[in-house]
Amino acid sequence: MNSKILANDVQQFINDNLNTDIHKILLSKSRFPEVSSRELVEQIESKLKAITKLPTWFNTDNIYYPNKLNLSQTSSEITANYKATLVHGTSIIDLTAGFGVDSFAFSKKMKHVVHIDKNEDLSKIAQHNFKQLNAANIECIAADGLEFLKKTNNPIDWIYIDPSRRDKDNKKVYYLFDCEPNVVSNMDLLLSKASNLLIKTGPLLDLKSGLKELIHVKEIHIVAINNDVKEILWLIEKDYKEEPLIKTLNYKAKTLQEFQFHLSEEQITDSQYSKPLNYVYEPNAAILKSGAFKSIAKNYNLFKIHANSHLYTSKELIPFPGRIFEVKGVYDYSKKSLKKEGLIKANITTRNFPDSVLKIRKKLGIKDGGEIYLFCTTDLEENLIIISCLQIFQDH
Predict the structure, then answer these.
(1) Where does the THUMP-like domain start and stop, copy by copy (predicted)?
(2) What is the pLDDT of residue 167?
(3) CA distance 381 to 370
(4) Which of 67, 194, 207, 208 has the fewest Cβ atoms surrounding its Cβ within 10 A?
């Protein structure tokens, strides 16, 4: 951490050059003897990322930013604030705290937060920023999280862990036991120090794989922002033996779409099927990630178009946690059948369909864009069909 970056004239330069071509700054000699051009660019790039991801940080004076790669790996303010709603009590240890976004969110809910990161620079950066953010109840410790746990005897209500999904060679890993720290092999240690754990994993982790690796899972939360799954949260409670509840959330600009279910419900639920009716429904990304393909149909009284298509249909319009489309026509998968539509361009989505979007565009001669949406899918009679639709925008 270069404290000279926090000088008033340097901070003013950073703020004044947020819209400047960073390559010009990088190739120019820095006007500040103790702050390099590279450091200036890193601050500018990271601050720009914070505009939407971390608005509280962006709107606070004298925030020190890490490089943009580190910032891209941290939680967004939206997901951090959501995590804070899941914990209770007075104390929490953020075992892999990094830039400290989650720690800051926890500090608004818990009396005492311990921010631990083995990167000494990140620890110092977080400590400085917490002062700027007036978060006086966060203790920053530069240490290995697991080693710290082994030595501490202080009572802890919660432990939060965001294991790194990169190995020693900086390659991405996808299974929990490959992440650092390895929460699977250290579960006994973790639960000996706190009765409640909150573990964050990436969106690519398979839920069934996670359930095989972890014990005492009480709830699984799948969090998406604007239909993009950002993280999966695992709530673990010591000695919990019941079936976990799965919750899905999709944050939109003005609304929050929520749905929850149990895997056992999904397994015993029977679906009803229909050819496309007046409306077609596409579940949001969090629901699709959860695997609630039959549960969502039952809950909203919808028909499935095919067992493997995960598209739904109804005669009457129903509010739904996902995208809704009004059906304008259903066609065979051929250029001839679409010719009378007079389509030049459309948005194409495939569900349970053998051809790629690129191949479909080439075959049908349709460019990208416009108001029409084409769902290329398979119907209940195993026919390849094209559903032509207009999207219905909803406040729900």
Answers:
(1) 322-386
(2) 64
(3) 30
(4) 208
Would you state the pLDDT for residue 73? 83
- Looking at residue 396, its pLDDT comes to 44
Backbone angles phi, psi at 283, to 5 degrees: -60, 150
What are the angstrom distances between the C-alpha of 392 and each of 148, 193, 251, 281? 53, 50, 18, 10
DSSP state of 244: P
- Distance between CA atoms of 351 and 309, rounded to whole angstroms? 5
Instruction: Judge residue 260's burial from the number of C-beta atoms within 10 Å of its C-beta, 0-12 exposed, 13-18 middle, 19 or more buried.
Output: middle
Give the alpha-carbon dihedral of 75, 190, 203, 300, to 10 degrees: -100
**Mean pLDDT calculated for residue range 119-129:** 94
Instruction: Tell the CATH topology of 3-71.
Output: Arc Repressor Mutant, subunit A (1.10.10)
pLDDT of residue 176: 80
Q: Which fold has domain 75-242?
A: Rossmann fold (3.40.50)
Can you tell me the mean pLDDT for 94-113? 95
User: pTM for the complete prediction?
Assistant: 0.92
3-state secondary structure (DSSP) of residue 127 = helix
Give pLDDT, residue 170. 66
State mean pLDDT over 14-28.
92
Q: Is the dihedral of CA 113, 141, 222, 246 positive or negative?
A: negative
| Mean pLDDT of all residues belonging to the chain | 93
Cβ contacts of 360 within 8 Å, gap of 6 or more: 348, 350, 366, 376
- Secondary structure (DSSP) of 91-119: EEEETT-TT-HHHHHHHTT-SEEEEEES-
Burial of 154 (0-12, 13-18, 19+ CB in 10 A): exposed
Query: Is 295:302 a contact under the CB 8 Å cutoff?
Result: no
* Cα–Cα distances in angstroms (integers) from residue 322 to residues 66, 203, 215, 222, in the given order: 35, 18, 31, 15
